[in-house]
Each structure stands twice: as C-alpha cells, then as structure tokens.
Amino acid sequence: MAASQPLYERIEKQLRRRLEGAGDGDPFPSESRLAQEFGVSRMTARAALVRLERDGLLERVPGRGSFVRQAAAARPVGTLLSFHDQARALGKTPRSRVLEAAVRPASRQEAAALYPALTTQPASVVAISRVRLFNDLPVAIERATFPATLDALLTADLETGSLHQTLRRAGLPPTLGSSILTARTADDDARELDVDRTTPMLVETRSIIDQQGNPLEYTISSYVAHRYALKVDFSVSAPGNPPHPADGGGDAVRRPA
What is the pTM of this model? Predict the structure, then answer.
C-alpha cells in the first residue's frame, strides 16, 4: 500500500473487507469506536464512514448508529407472503413496534373493503398499526384493519408474532388478495422509520379474503424504498394480443395464494 495514500482511504479499504462478512441490518462500529480502534482522530474515521455511506454500504440512523446496508429485501408481488414469514425466509429477525391496537370506527375506504354489502350503517374495525423491523432496522409502517368480529387479534403477540399465523390457527387462512402499488415521501412517518421526511416510500394497499371469499384484511403498508423492494415477473406479448392475467402477464396486483 502506497505510503502517500490518505489514512482514511486505508481505513476505508479495511472496513470494506469487514463488510463482506456482515449481514444486512447488522450494527456497525461508530466513528468514535473506529477512531479508537485505528488510533486516529474522529474526523479521519468519519471520512472513511462517509465514503461507505456514499456507496450505499452503510446507513446512518440518527440516534441509533450505523447499519450495514445490502440490496433491498425483495418480495415477489404474486405471492401472499407475510412480513413475518419473509423475514424468516431471509434469515432475519422480524419484530414490530405497536403504534395502535384498538377497535375504532372504520374509514370510508376500510368500510368499503371489509363490509362491501354495508351501505349506511356505521361500521367498526380492528385496527393494528405497527412499525415493522428487520433485525431492529425499521422497514415499514403497516396499518392493518380487520372486521370487528376479529377483536381477539388484539390479544395476539403483536411485537414478535405473525397475525397471519394467528388467523390460520383460528381457521381463517388468508387465501386470495389484491394489491395496488403507489409511491410517496415519508412525511409524518419519517420519525418512526428513522428517515428524512423526503425519503421515497413504496406504498402497498392490500385487500385479502378468506377461504370462503369473505373480506378478511385491508392493509396499507408503507415501505422505505431503499430497504424493501417488490419483484414483478411478467411476460412480453405481441401488440394487440395482451396476455391473460392468469398467465402472469404483467399483472402486478393479483396475488394468488
């Protein structure tokens, strides 16, 4: 290694090698710890960290420290896979921070999704809002609602458990769903997700029915775009001959179980 190479670049190279064996969301030493480890000033350690952040290898979360950042976790759109199950499949530890768990009046959109036959009578829903985390890194805010008859969900393990598993045990397996994908900025969700208000968000509005075809769940999940991705498979057809949705022809909203 050339003696003229800046010290922070030498530290950066060592840290890059260290990152090769790290997992997504793993905590990374602070600049003060690195300064002590390498016997340099905090400014020098910070310069090395900034270069890693610039290249998308680290993410600094205000008040919590730096975390390893790998490619965003991707979920196939055409699968009805819960956040909890996906985390386990990726070798991550799922956890939730509960923001709301109550029976409350339904919004117009919630009533239309969960009580489609209801016209004028006021409706109530079980509302469960949570910050969803992979390895303690906030990935999404999930605002889920269910018919008021499922108030037993409020006694489930909302921090480390899976609501879909709870529904299956109750004989109500989530069976078929549809999603609409949109985008926005974090805005008022920024604080809970430890991101800036202008951070891009991927929003999935999802409706699920049970095995009898009855409305089971209406959920709006807002994902931090650089921490989560949705994978869409599609086929290419000749002009004037659009593929049937059942053939997977670019239908990014159907989610067969």
Answer: 0.70
For residue 207, the model assigns a pLDDT of 96
Question: What is the three-class DSSP state of 25?
Answer: coil
For the ranges 18-27, 41-50, 119-128, 205-214, the lowest mean pLDDT is seen at 18-27
What are 251's two structure tokens? 């239908």
Range of weakest confidence among 61-65, 208-212, 242-246? 242-246
Per-residue confidence (pLDDT) for residue 241, from 0 to 100: 65
How far lies 75's CA from each of 10, 183, 231, 232, in Å? 37, 17, 6, 9
Classified as helix, coil or strand, 134 is: strand
Contacts of 3 (CB under 8 A, 6+ apart): none
Give the angle 118-119-121 at the CA atoms, nearest 5°: 75
Q: Are 188 and 208 in contact (CB under 8 A)?
A: no
What is the rounded average pLDDT for all residues in the chain? 85
**Angle, helix 7-19 to helix 31-38, in steps of 10 degrees:** 110
Burial of 108 (0-12, 13-18, 19+ CB in 10 A): exposed
Position 57: which residue type?
Answer: L
Lowest mean pLDDT among 119-128, 153-162, 166-175: 119-128
All domains of the chain in start order, with CATH? 7-68 (1.10.10.10), 73-231 (3.40.1410.10)
C-beta pairs of 230-233 under 8 Å, 24+ apart in sequence: 230/74, 230/75, 230/76, 230/77, 230/181, 230/202, 230/204, 231/74, 231/75, 231/76, 231/77, 232/76, 232/77, 232/78, 233/76, 233/77, 233/78
